[in-house]
Fold this sequence. Notes:
Elements: E1 20-21, H1 25-29, E2 36-37, E3 39-42, E4 46-47, E5 50-53, E6 57-61, E7 64-67, E8 72-75, E9 80-83, E10 94-97, E11 102-106, E12 113-117, E13 133-137, E14 175-183, E15 187-190, E16 193-195, E17 198-201, E18 208-215, E19 222-225, E20 231-237, E21 244-247, E22 253-260, E23 276-278, E24 295-302, E25 316-318, E26 324-327, E27 330-334, E28 343-345, E29 352-355, E30 358-361, E31 377-379, E32 387-389, E33 401-404, H2 410-413
Parallel strand pairs: 3-6, 4-7, 5-8, 6-9, 7-10, 8-11, 9-12, 10-13, 11-14, 12-14, 13-17, 14-18, 17-19, 18-20, 19-21, 20-22, 21-23, 22-24, 23-25, 24-26, 24-27, 25-28, 26-29, 27-30, 30-31
Antiparallel strand pairs: 1-2, 15-16, 32-33
Amino acid sequence: MKKILFGFAALTLVVMGACKKEGKPEDRGLQAGVLAVCDTVVLPNVISGSMTLTNDKVYILNGKTYVASGGILTINAGTRIEGIRKDSAKDASALVITKGGKINANGDSCNPIVFTTRINGSNAVANPGDWGGIVILGKSIVNKVNPVIEGIDLPTLPPGIDVTYGGTDSLDNSGTIKFVRIEYAGAVVAPNKELNSLTLGGVGSQTTIHHVEAAWGADDAFEFFGGTVNASYLVALAMNDDGLDFDYGYRGAIQFALVVRSSCCFNQTYADANGIECDNDEFDNSGALPKTRPILSNITIVGGQNAAIAGTLNGVRFRRSADYIMRNSVVMGYGDGTTSYGARFDAPSVKTEFKYNIIHAFGANNTNVPPLDATNVTAATTGGVGLLAPFNCGASGTGLNFAPANAASLPIANAANFVTGWPANIIPTANNFLNKTVTYRGAFAQANRNWLGCWSNCIGFLPPAMNCQ
């Protein structure tokens, strides 16, 4: 989670939503900068009651908007929310759902909710870190005492707003986030104090999170500080730091996720980035309880094609007293085999498991702990994994395809396993997504990337609202 300064190329925005469009649909498919004609509404500093955002307006985050305890923010499908870029990172625009507050962001596959940067006279092009991102704070269990979420400048808090998180309710419900894109977020407020595209602090398992994309962020795509929330169908695209990051006693399950380092859509510069980073405590080897223990299955992590991308470290890194279970996943395009690896394990505990995965790394060593469990399969080259087109950019990324090509591809030829040793103690979720019937490893079935639908951007599909209305 340590950061360096970086520079970027511009990416033209396509404005989505149910507003009146100036331009033809085929123009939007080329990302030609077609703008919607919509009224704009600046969101208040504090939402203490109920507020609904509709898709006939563009909503502006001008600094922090806090949903207070008891407040409910509802966002309709197809709605667009834009964060204004601030000169000082501590003032970064962000949406913060505090303990006892709720967000119900209910996009759908062809009308996603889009959180992105505000393009205006002082911010002519979009860049990672333009705004802060989304923060959700809950009452579920963490292994710290009354922690304060990082990335918030405490002296600027409105009266009565609490940005601590955690409690005793593993079944806490902070609402729903589904079919949501978060673009150009993340802000480094101070060293080791950053906002991420989606930050989850002590979020409980009755919270619903699925089909969420974090793209071109300045820090982690998804960071879980404790809590018990489960999630599925996540996309982490070209974020500056880690794709999935776990700390402070997180105990949840994640199935079906795609983590991609790609220059197809944005020339991101990476800062010591792992595909997955997992700690019990992000700063030391604390054995605090409950210990971090993510349960991960059907994850696809893709780095470089012929060499590790500059600024990246490991495909996955489990360290600092964390427990973990990772199965049925694909890790490729990371590691020089000497200082970074496809999979790196630092002081694993007895409650860990890394099995039934496909793993590749550049250099002689796939991991720093030989040998891998025999259930894992290694590939000598990225091409040997057998994905259809993990590096074929095409037009604005539309050539990318991370699905296995055929039955001989390693993720298909080597079946998934959810039986021996698979944990039964996943904390229940409101709509239990865990699918134990899939037979493949990685995030996608053979020649099938359909769960990306038309809601995601720049990873093999035209922008949402193309060819699906």
